Amino acid sequence: MFDHIGLEVSDLARSAAFYDAIMHRLGGRRMHESPRAIAYGRTRASLWIVERGGAVPQAGAASWGHVALTAVGKAAVDAAYEAGIAAGGTDDGPPGPRPQYGSRYYAAYLCDPDGVRVEVVAGAH
Known about the structure:
Number of helices: 2
Number of strands: 8
Strand content: 35-45%
Pfam family, one: Glyoxalase
Domain VOC: 1-123
Number of domains: 1
Largest sheet: 4 strands, mixed
Organism: Paraconexibacter antarcticus
InterPro entries: Glyas_Bleomycin-R_OHBP_Dase, Glyas_Fos-R_dOase_dom, VOC_core
Protein name: VOC family protein
């Protein structure tokens, strides 16, 4: 259904450190890089971070959105979560089972440097 997802960020280098750490643990890599954008994927660019032009909304003023990234197993969820925290993300729900979403659903939640809620999930399908 989706071709790609783009997230606007206030500081490309700071956000790249966060997404580099998470995507590396999930088997992704940089597929495109320019002065104002970086794209990640496994076989094609599907997650883009683009430096925002203009004013930056105040953190906490409104939901910045949510993106869920697929992990292959619980260990990958745990590793991506730890890497994201170490790279400047903030905790929004530690790794663990989420039975309300299914008997095999295991996920972690963190916020990127701009406040976007990032979910790393295994066992969703």
